[in-house]
Design goal:
4-stranded antiparallel β-sheet; mainly beta; 106 residues; 42% strand; 6 strands; two-stranded antiparallel ribbon
């Protein structure tokens, strides 16, 4: 009796083996943030909030960690991230008037 194993893919690559040998760890993150924050209670200078529309705030990033030893809990990490933040609001404020118009230059 003979048995043959065939595999089309391998669970490990040279990059993963190298990373484990040099104590690197990688993470990829993605998120959606909804809403905003306001001081509570709302300051007396804000008389009325006419409209509030939070935007769809997306975020994507990665964390690359280099541990200082094979079993060490200590390491150094770098975390580049791209975020989109925004909301549209209109409010009436005591003794203050301003209109901000944002235009993107292409």
């Amino acid at each position: 009796m003979t048995t043959n194993n065939a595999s089309a893919q391998s669970n490990t690559t040279w990059g993963l083996i190298w990373s484990e040998m040099h104590n690197f760890e990688y993470e990829i993150n993605a998120s959606i943030n909804i809403g905003g924050s306001s001081p509570m209670p709302i300051p007396g200078e804000i008389r009325k909030i006419n409209s509030y529309k939070p935007g769809l705030n997306l975020s994507i990033g990665a964390v690359i960690t280099k541990f200082f030893g094979t079993n060490s809990p200590w390491g150094m990490a770098i975390s580049p991230r791209l975020e989109v933040k925004g909301m549209d609001t209109e409010a009436e404020v005591k003794n203050y008037g301003m209109s901000i118009i944002q235009r993107l230059l292409v």
